[in-house]
Amino acid sequence: MTVSISRRAFAIGAAAAGFAMAGFSPSRAQQAFFRIGTGGTSGTYYPVGGLIANSISATGAAGVEGLVATAVSSNGSVANISAIQSGASESGFTQSDVAYWAQSGTGLYEGKPKVEDLRLIATLYPETIHLVARADAGIKTVADLKGKRVSLDEPGSGTIVDSRLVLAAYGLTEKDVEPEYLKPGPSGERLQDGALDAYFFVGGYPTGAIVELASTNNITLVPIFGPEADKLLSEQKFFSTDTVPANTYKNVGETKTISVAAQWVTSAKQPDDLVYKIVKSLYSDETQKTLQAGHAKGKLITLQNAVTSAGIPFHPGAEKFYKEVGALK
Fold first, then answer.
1. Which keywords belong to this entry (predicted)?
2. Cβ atoms within 10 Å, residue 183
3. Cα(20)–Cα(258) distance, rounded to whole angstroms?
4. Measured between alpha carbons, how far is 282 from 52 in angstroms, rounded to an integer?
5. Of the residues 217, 239, 260, which one is the last residue of a structural domain?
6. What is the domain-level CATH number for residue 306?
7. 188 shares its domain with 305
8. Does residue 201 sit in the same domain as residue 280?
9. What is the span of the domain harbouring residue 284?
C-alpha cells in the first residue's frame, strides 16, 4: 500500500512529533527550530529527511533537548542552498557537485557570488543518476535520446545540472532533444501516458516513484557507461561509478551508471553547539537503528561515510564531533 503525505502534513507531523516526544511546554527551555530542505515528495531526500528530523527532534539518547526539526519539500539541491543563503532554511540536502560549485563559485555558480558560508554537516549516501525510459522507446544508450522527449528535471534542481553534463558527454545538448522540465512524479506520469520517452532522476535507489512506475509499466534504465562516461568521470571528479542491481526495479536488469554524493549542509552562522548536538544525535545508536529500518539508503548513513566526498569545509560543530570520535584527524 502506498501512503501519500503532503508537504504541509509531513512538516506539521514532524514538528508535532518533536513536541510530543520532548514534552515541550511554554515553561520549558527555549526551543530551536531547524528546517531541513529536502526534495520532491516522490524522491529519496524527502523520506530520509523525515526520518532524520523526527530522530533528532526526540529527547533522550537519540535526540536534542529543545530541538524541533522539520523536513520540508523543495526543488532540490540548488533551491536548498539558496534557502540556506537567504536564511529561509537552517539546512538542506544537496548533491556534492552542487555544494562544491556553490562554495567555490565554479561550474553552475560561475560568475555568481560564492556561497562562502556553506558548510558540511555530513555526507549521507551515494546518489545514482537514473535515466529512465519507456521500454518501447528504442533508447539503448544516452546517444539514442536525440530527437526524443526527455525531462531534465526542474530548474533549481541538481538533477538538471547533471543531466546536461551527461548529454554533453555523449555529444548532445538540450537542443538535440525535446526537453521538458518536470520533477520525477509528473515525469513518470507522462512517461506512463506515452507523452514522454525518458527522464533523468538523481537519487538513491530504490526510489519510490520509479518502483511504482515499474510495477505497472515496462521501463528500462539506460546505462551511462563506456568511453563517454569514463571521460566525464575524469573531468568531473565528484562523479563515481555506480551500478543499480538487477530487479531493484521490476523487470529491469543490472545497469551500470554514475553517481554523486548526497550531503547535508548548513550555514557557518548556525551555532557550533547546536550542530555538534545534531551530528551526535544523527550517529547515536537509536537514530542509526531508525535510519536502517526506515529506508534502504538509511543503511548507508554511517559515521564511516560521513566524512567522505567532503568538497566543502565542515561546520565547526560537526568537525568537533568527528574529531572526538576519530573520524577526522
1. Signal
2. 22
3. 42
4. 7
5. 260
6. 3.40.190.10
7. no
8. no
9. 7-125+262-324
Amino acid found at 54: N
The pLDDT score that the predictor gives to residue 61 is 60
Side chain identity at residue 164, one-letter code: R
Q: Identify the residue with better confidence: 244 or 183.
A: 244
Which among 168, 163, 262 has a CA at the least distance from the CA of 222? 163
Dist. CA 21–CA 41, nearest whole Å: 25
| Tally of domains in the chain | 2
Q: For residue 324, give the amino acid letter.
A: E
- At 47, is the secondary structure helix, strand, or coil? helix
Per-residue model confidence (pLDDT) at position 309: 86
Q: Among 102, 42, 39, 32, which Cα is nearest to 74's? A: 39
Question: Residues 78-102: pLDDT tens digits?
Answer: 999 999 999 999 999 999 999 999 9
- Alpha-carbon distance of 257 to 246, in angstroms, equals 13
d(CA 102, CA 263): 13
Residues in a beta bridge with 151: 180, 199
Instruction: Single out the residue of 165, 47, 115 nearest to residue 311, CA to CA.
Output: 115
Short-list 14, 20, 55, CA closest to 291: 55
What is this structure's pTM? 0.74
Half-sphere exposure (CA, 13 Å, Cβ side) for 129?
30
- Which of the listed residues 228, 244, 260 is the one where a domain comes to its end? 260
Are residues 198 and 140 part of one domain? yes
Is 1 inside a domain boundary?
no
d(CA 274, CA 119): 14
Same domain, 181 and 268: no
Question: What are the residue ranges of helices labelled H in the chain?
Answer: 7-22, 45-57, 77-86, 96-104, 158-169, 184-192, 208-216, 227-235, 272-282, 285-294, 303-306, 316-324
Q: Look up cell 516526544; give the residue.
A: 21
Question: E strands within 3-137?
Answer: 32-37, 67-72, 91-95, 118-134
| pLDDT, tens digit, 9 for 90 and up, residues 98-133 | 999 999 998 889 899 999 999 999 999 988 999 999
